[in-house]
Amino acid sequence: MTLSGRAAIAGIGATEFSKESGRSELRLAAEACLAAIHDAGLTPADVDGLVTFTADASAEIAVQRELGIDALRFFSRVDYGGGAACGTVAHAAMAVATGQADVVVCYRAFNERSGHRFGQAGASSRADSTGLEFSWHLPFGFATPAAWVAMQARRYMHDHGATSEDFGRVAVAMRRHAATNPKAWFHGRPITLEEHQASRWIVDPLHLLDCCQESDGGVALVVTTPERARDLPHPPAVIRAAAQGTGPGQMMMFGYYTGDLAALPAMNTVGTRLWKQSGLTPGDVHVGILYDHFTPFVLMQLEELGFCGRGEAPGYVADGGIELDGRLPVNPHGGQLGEAYIHGMNGIAEAVRQLRGTAANQVADVEHVLVTAGTGVPTSGLVLGTG
Amino acid sequence: MHDELTALAERLAALGDRPGVPCPDPVNAAMIRNWTQALGDTGDWSELAPPAMIQVWSMPGLGAARAGSIADEPLRLLDGAGFTGVVATNCDQTYDRYVRVGEALRSTMRFGGVTGPKKTAMGEGYFVTWFQSWWDEDGARVAEMLFRVLKFRPRGAPRRPSGGRYPLRPAIGPDTRFFWDGVDAGELRVQKCADCAALRHPPGPMCPECHSVERDHVVAAGRGTVHSYVVHHHPPVPGRTPPYVVAVVELDEGVRIVGNVNGCDPADVHVGMPVRLVFERMDDDLVLPQWTPLDAPDPEPPAPRPEGLDIALTPTFVIATALATRDHTPVHHDPALARAQGSQDIFLNILTTIGLVQRYALEREPGAELASIAVRLGAPAYAGDTLTLTGGPAADGTYTVRGLVSLGDHVTATVRFKEPHP
How large is the average pLDDT for residues B194-222? Predict the structure, then answer.
């Protein structure tokens, strides 16, 4: 028995994406959940499970109270920042597949731009296992996600001859996609490679335009059984595979101590399981939703997931491979670089739209979409299909 | 504003000596004893008052209405024009003669002038100078003081001083303490399994190879190569000045470690660059293991603290001396209020600083008679710090005194004696 085909996403909902929502994170969560439940043709009374990120500020019971749900039978949180995104759906799918719950809503909502910003340097650490991990890095002023990713990016450049332009082509493609997505923050605002190169250093070798934007907003997803989903208004996005994964010597974002820095072994763990569970291969995927908090990790994901060989991603992208008409259209909504940074949850919603045929930048005849979550951290992934 | 300020300064300077603050009490033994006990001055002041006490006699005291200063108007004008920062820079006292117990004094004030605008380390600003003089019952002047402040336009948001404590501190647990103890001892320790001898960094409680919990360590030779690196530019990181290099260094022993590469231009760092271990002291308590190019010269060893008069700036000392100089400004006795105003803690007042300069000079030149003390003020002397006074005769016949705290020079003073100094 596997999880494949045992659960589906029946509803998606979101708030607007902004730089200052002007309301509480709990309110954003409740609004996104309610929108997703209504999109699924259900009411809060039908919901008996809630899953979110460990990092979310709004507890499952707080969202339960706002939605007026009488009782939850399943609640769970997934850790490790943006690596949790697809993991929330994996947990929800396991719950509905095993009958632990009937309808589970996964949500993530924050004021990441107007409130607590992840990109700012933190100074404190406690002596728990995570605090000790950070203590090998923070004292050296090595204190931001951009810096932690840049360390791997530099080694990738060294090992494979990649350049800053190779990273820039990812940003240009994402902004080109966002330019024609009315929901995207950067709607109508594409960039050129020259603008990418001229943008200021954040942490060399990363320019400003290698780093995704920061956003306020919330996204929610309704997971139920495929049988029930087929009775609801939208065609279901069936979960063909769901996986979480770590790599050897895994740390939060400091994969520097064993093996190859120019690699994302946790994503390899996830990818291997996704292909096995779904019975698909990279060639069967029509759209890729690749977590794009920083451009270099889009390249490395293409390699880890088997879309190309080691060191070949720069060529794959330069050849137009990730464009809407490319071999693997990546992030037609514009990704987190272009649409919004909602910790990867907006990407899962885009995957559902591509399968429904309702996306702003709709790719033709989409049957399978691969979705990944935050990389560099313990991560997760999904393969969604029509049906 | 500049023209208005200049005109105002000329008008005030033309007024000459104006009646200043009254001296509430005659020169008296009780206040002298409070002062000498608080400052640790063991001189014989049974008949004459310590000259550096001169300003104490005209201090208004707690709760007294603050008398207007001759400099209030220009200071307000500068405030209004955005020069809101203020820091005292000079305090020069000239002693015509020592005053005797029992004498009644009065004081006057005179405006000096305004110079500026000048670019300073604090920001653009104006120096404002005024004078206070003390007179005896016969109308003869006994002392004069020059006081100068810098009114400056603060650059950006007011900086919260970190108080010399490096803010990015490691959390240390039972499994990692050996590493930081090693750093304190000048060693880079790499965990070694006591059973299977596998090396491991970062360390942990159980050997992932053989699952032994018996741990040992080796001391790394301190040589390695840059495996990867970044140059941090943005955002600002507390305690750090960008751009700076962070590298993953692969040690010759085979494990990797993260640290800064110091001692070279960030543009010169490259993957594969040989580096060697150096220890960087971040503050009194924290040392970090760092890296520098193999061929870079050793960093200058920190200068040893000079031998001199060490004064432990306990809260008691700071508060007792403030009160003994009749200075009731809250930043000298109320830690919460001092911190609310952006200071790290309560700090030594200027009247005490000048008194300590006197104590230092007269302890080393017993019997000499002071003619003047000219003080340049620097870093604040916070409670919890140590003030080390050093100095001696200078080539020009004066006597120089320097007061060092952990933040740098608190005071540099030039002392002159009445008789030509031997």
Answer: 96
> Is residue A211 included in any domain, yes or no?
no
Q: What is the CATH number of the domain that holds A254?
A: 3.40.47.10
Q: What's the pLDDT band for A8 if we cut at 50, 70, 90? A: very high
Inter-residue long-range contacts of A40-44, CB under 8 Å, 24+ positions, other chains counted:
A40/A10, A40/A11, A40/A103, A40/A222, A40/A224, A40/A232, A40/A233, A40/A234, A41/A10, A41/A11, A41/A232, A41/A233, A41/A234, A42/A10, A42/A11, A42/A103, A42/A222, A42/A232, A44/A68, A44/A69
From residue B343, how far is each of B123, B349, B352 by CA, in Å?
18, 13, 18
Is B165 part of any domain?
A: no
* Residue A283 lies in domain: 8-112+216-385
pLDDT band at B194 (very low <50, low <70, confident <90, very high): very high
Domain check: are B278 and B320 in the same one?
A: no
Residue B217 and residue B348 in one domain:
no
| Residue A125 confidence (pLDDT) | 67
Most B CBs within 10 A among A142, A156, A209, hence the mutation to make, goes to A142
Average pLDDT, chain A: 97
Q: Are B331 and B232 contained in the same domain? A: no
Residue A198 burial by CB count (10 A; 0-12/13-18/19+): exposed, middle or buried? exposed
Q: Specify whether the CB–CB gap between A162 and A173 falls below 8 A.
A: no
The dihedral through the CA atoms of A185, A189, A195, A197 has a sign that is positive
- Verify that B131 and B183 share a domain, yes or no: no
For residue range B4-40, list pLDDT tens digits in order.
Answer: 999 999 999 998 888 876 789 999 999 999 999 999 9
CATH of the domain at B45: 3.10.129.10
pLDDT the model gives residue B21? 67
A256 is catalytic: no
Q: What is the number of structural domains in chain A?
A: 1
pLDDT of B249 strictly over 60:
yes
Nearest C-alpha in A relative to B200: A257
Say what percent of chain A tops pLDDT 70. Answer: 99
Q: Are residues B22 and B96 in the same domain?
A: yes
Q: Is the minimum CB–CB distance between B170 and chain A shorter than 8 Å?
A: yes
CATH code of the domain in which B199 resides:
2.40.50.840
Q: Is B178 on the interface with A (CB under 8 A)?
A: no
Query: What is the ipTM for the molecules in this complex?
Result: 0.95
The DSSP element (H or E) to which A224 belongs, if any, is strand A216-224
Mean pLDDT of A3-27: 97
| Residue A80 designated active-site | no
Q: Which two tokens stand for residue B202?
A: 């970062």
Q: B192 and B258 share a domain?
A: yes
The average pLDDT across A56-75 equals 98
